[in-house]
Each structure stands twice: as C-alpha cells, then as structure tokens.
Amino acid sequence: MAYAGKTNEPRRPAGASKSQGRQPLAPAPKTPRRVGSLATSLAIGLVIGVGVALLFAPQSGADTRRSLRRRMRHAGLRGRDAWDDLRDELRHARRQLRRMRRRARDRADDAAVATAVDAAT
User: Fold this and answer.
1) Would you say residue 8 lies in a domain?
2) Structure confidence by residue, pLDDT tens digits, 40-62
3) N or C, which terminus of the chain has less Cβ within 10 Å?
C-alpha cells in the first residue's frame, strides 16, 4: 500500500504549491513564567534556612558574626584570586593567538614572494 499523504488536508491541484491555500501558523501559546516564582521561592527558602541555622547555632552571636566575617573575607580573596588567574590565562591565550596570526601572515607572505619569484623566472 502506498502512502497517500495526510488524510485531513484537502487535495491540491497538481500545479499548486504547498503554501497556497494554507492558513498561517498560529503563535505558540505563552507559557507561565515559572522562573520568577522559582527564584523567589529559592530566595525565601534560603533566608529562612539561614535564620533557622543562626538561631540554633552552638556558639554565641558575636562568635557567629566573627566566623561569618572571616568566611566572607576568605571567599572574597579566593574569588579575587580566581579572577586574577582567569585574567592571566586570557592574556596568555591572546598572546599565543597573536603569535599564531603573525606566523601565518609571515608564511603567507613568504609563499606569495616565492610564487612571484617563480612566475618571474
């Protein structure tokens, strides 16, 4: 049995193109914005979790604040070090790319000169 096409579409005359007589596609229905509600729920959960953790902490408030300051300072230093490392790697990669371009340009110039010399002789 041969495939005859979709059965729910009317048949077109032999010379007619597919786009003739067809209705344009309707825009896709908009989906609800769940990302905003997810982010809000996550932020609220984080705040509640931090509050409960601080309430049930085994050390005093002053010690907890000191510990938090120390951890935040340490995280800031680690983040700064990571950005410095990334900057150094990007500079190194840029230098290598410049060298590669220069070498390719020099090879192309040498090949052009060699071709011109061969053509002249």
Assistant:
1) no
2) 999 999 999 988 887 887 888 78
3) N
Would residue 5 count as lying in a domain?
no
Express each pLDDT in 4-47 by its tens digit.
555 665 566 555 555 555 566 666 656 556 777 888 999 999 99
Distance between CA atoms of residues 121 and 119, nearest Å: 6
* 58-91: burial string, b at 16+ Cβ within 10 Å, e else: eeeeeeeeeeeeeeeeeeeeeeeeeeeeeeeeee
Domain assignment present for residue 7? The answer is: no
Identify the DSSP state of 9: S
- Count other Cβ atoms within 10 Å, centred on residue 12: 13
Q: Which residues are CB-neighbours of 111 under 8 A, at least 6 positions away? A: none
